Amino acid sequence: SPLFHKFLKEALNKVPKDKCVTVRDALNQAMDEELERDERVFLLGEEVAQYDGAYKVSRGLWKKYGDKRIIDTPISEMGFAGIAVGAAMAGLRPICEFMTFNFSMQAIDQVINSAAKTCYMSAGLQAVPIVFRGPNGASAGVAAQHSQCFAAWYAHCPGLKVVSPWNSEDAKGLLKSSIRDDNPVVFLENELLYGVPFEMSEEAQSKDFTIPIGKAKVERAGSHITLVSHSRYVGHCLDAAAVLAKEGIECEVINLRTIRPMDVESIEASVMKTNHLVTVEGGWPQFGVGAEICARIMEGSAFNYLDSPVTRVTGVDIPMPYAKILEDHSLPQIKDIIFSVKKTLNV
Amino acid sequence: MKTMLAIISNALCRMTGRNALLIGLSEYVTLTSPSPPASAQTQRQPPKPPPVSTRAAQLVSGQTTDQPVGPGARVVVSRSFADFTPQATFDIKKCDLHRLEEGPPLKAELTRDQGLQYYRTMQTVRRMELKADQLYKQKIIRGFCHLYDGQEACAAGIEASINPTDHLITAYRAHGYTYTRGVSIKEILAELTGRKGGVAKGKGGSMHMYAPHFYGGNGIVGAQVPLGAGIALACQYQGNNQLCVTLYGDGAANQGQLFESFNMAALWKLPCIFICENNKYGMGTSVERASASIDYYKRGDFIPGIRVDGMDVLCVREATKFAADHCRSGKGPIVMELQTYRYHGHSMSDPGVSYRTREEIQEVRTKSDPISMLKERMLSNNMASVEEFKEIDVDIRKQVEEAAQFATSDPEPPLEDLCNHIFYNNPPLEVRGTNPWSKLKSVS
What is the pTM of this model? Predict the structure, then answer.
């Protein structure tokens, strides 16, 4: 009957229109929306304009916004990072892309000494609203000089915010928040995630969707053990959790989303529930993100709830090798996470 | 007879402060003809009315002669203006040119008011730096302290040729520019002594002082140059016809990031004046020992350059005007090398005599001191009197003394301020102290 069809149509319209969006497209959308929203925002970096981005993250933006707002730079990281910081000091809101964060080492003085410390040194007179973004950590077969994870290096420094998204929703919401933040943000993407599609809720697809910096997300609830991770390894943790669930071990998986400031409260709340903690990251073990989590848990209220020491799962403490078999064994695999969980639970 | 009368009349006027001339004014001018160091032509203009004194906002001198006069003129309200030459033209040293057909003019006009203003600015910087030297030796200032005395003509000349709405960034020898860009002596000295009344509330120190359109004060040698190019990019982006003056030293001139900045600035035609303050020594290393080419004005390669006598405030002013016109006309960046000299060592921990002779320092002081040069020019062209300069000196000393008093008596910043200003426009956050139980608060 026509009434029934009308009812059905209305009901279907109310169903949220989730769709699959790759991380690349989510980042692209974030930048597009923020460029449109605020004319002070602009993007600079190598190949971001006419090449559409080395990893195509800025595809279409130059065509839409032109030379003034999407700027191709020469291969001069220290120079263009400094130029970006200067532009931020003088009232613009630059997005400075490093083709990979490995190249940011050339410019790290500008990120730390010129950007991060300035608000403090000037007692609040001089703000630096800038985002440094680009792929971080291991890729595939790119060997030692192109595979380093810089999360720990940047997160060490006061004055910076360090963000590390995992899925498309993270990527879009956090990049928008980072661009709108009046402070220097280091935004660590992951090249292997660019092409991965994730469901994005209708809410996440809106132009005003932002995710607050400094808040972790519980991706999967569980009661036996807490897994904390960031970026690509959140996916690994979820995969490990799925396997472990078949054996009756329920993992709570926390996606840090932000490295600095770290949402330790969320981790503590989870540990107080599960009594066990495993951290998972791609970076090297020494002085890393996992090391910081261990220290913070030890210093806080959750320590007394631990039934065993915290376990860190990390990249192997070596420069990244090239051969596939070696590379595969340089980074945490799902079986490493499963093994570590069982060891921590003593099962 | 007339000469005698003129001399007596002159003396009477000076003594009584009254306009009791025994001869006609026009004859007075020719009789007291000066022997200028460079040939000067005096121009007859009606004397200006006594000025209303305004505070140092007039560090920036306009190109026209009807700018409001600075505090320098305040002291001469009681004098007769008919005594002094209101304006003179001076020959200035020709600049060496790189990739330029024409350079700055060979003559500079100076009005009496401008002259007194520049004198006051330079003398203030000089006395402020010497006071800092004193306070450092008394251990009231600690850490780094890089003094600018000797180089005053650079800061004063540059400020005289740009607008307050233009932008300026420099390296660590920054106290002079902090002053010319509008920060009070009080706030500068209090920052050096680390007090809460300092321009950065005691958080920054000597090398990290900021003001509107002044971006410090930068500690990492050369890092300020890309920053300056970026500020120029912002000017171009915003279409506001402003420019950025980006300063660096002969030592920084060999930093790679400078050449990266030159490349991008030229490529994108950024309105940036790159200025090398060549004071002949990068810390303890002379320019000959550091650079394969000491023609710093040519180091921009494809960027035009001019080499300027940095001890002559008029030369600096004319060259910077020329450079500013170049940038504002859309021609892109330009490089200026100011040949100058610092009397002090690199910093307060460097006596400054292990790598150069005392004779050399003394020679510059006697023959090329920027403040003396300006004063002599003005005196020999009868643009001001010795007494006037003395009064200005006394006033400056008083101001610097008061500022030093403040800087030594103002309290240090409160401990509650320790973690503040990490972020801008941010909700309050907790900061870990030295131990896990020490939870400190940070507000923006």
Answer: 0.88
